[in-house]
Amino acid sequence: MKYASRKYIDLILEVSSKWASWDPPHPIKVGDYGTIDKATGRFEKDGNIYDDPNLSFVRDHQPEILPPEEKMVFTSQTAQTHEFNLGPEVTIPGIAEASIKGQWKFKSGKTGAVLVIAQPRSSLISGNASALFKTLLDLDLPHLKDKFLVTETVACPAYGLYLSNKTDDTISLALLASTPLPIPVISAGGSIEAKWYSQTGAGVFRHGCAPLGPGQSYSFTPLFVIKRLRKRGTFGWRGRGAPEEEGEQENLELEDADKPWAPLDEDGEEEPFEDPVYD
């Protein structure tokens, strides 16, 4: 599929309200700013506000790192989640103890996506974030104008993603540890090696693992949140008798990042736009 990455990002954004990365090993950090490639959906970094010597005030708004969760699983609306069951004839060491496992069935003729994240940890601009955003907008710096700003990232030590190929697929995924312990239980001896067990179909399966446990590496960024750095006037309704204060107002908030493409078909192609016809 020519536009596989864009279609995957579109499907996961719909169910997670976060921007997905087709290439989770590619580093993305809170404070990065840049553009979105329309053809691929990839975030193209221009810089980071925390590295800019002209923006020293941002150091008072360091990202907050939240405690990790056990897992996140996102399934597009064109896929169905099923109980993990490989049948009695299949014996895989560690399957019974795996805390992250599942099966998904995809509809024929439809493109679906699944994203599984192990021990995700969010980092985000919090605290007095509104003051930071307002200052950035008030400065109206040319190199930040209309750029997308990463305000939150979801990093993890292990992820698996799958994009179906419009076939009647059923896939199985499980994250296996190298010890008989359930994955959330970390021994005092250190990290646990992990690997993905998969039975996948004709679509694209991408995955990665780093050691789980104390000092584990959050090497992957499968999800992030971006906002648009745009300062503009907004106009309220000015009907007959409307009070003057309901007129022009200044918008000093970051805008949610809109997708830079039209609605996509099952192949990730933009659907043609037709002007409405009125009788």
TrEMBL record:
Ranges where the record places region Disordered: 237-279
Biased composition (Acidic residues): 244-256, 264-279
Highest taxon above the source species: Eukaryota
Protein name: Uncharacterized protein
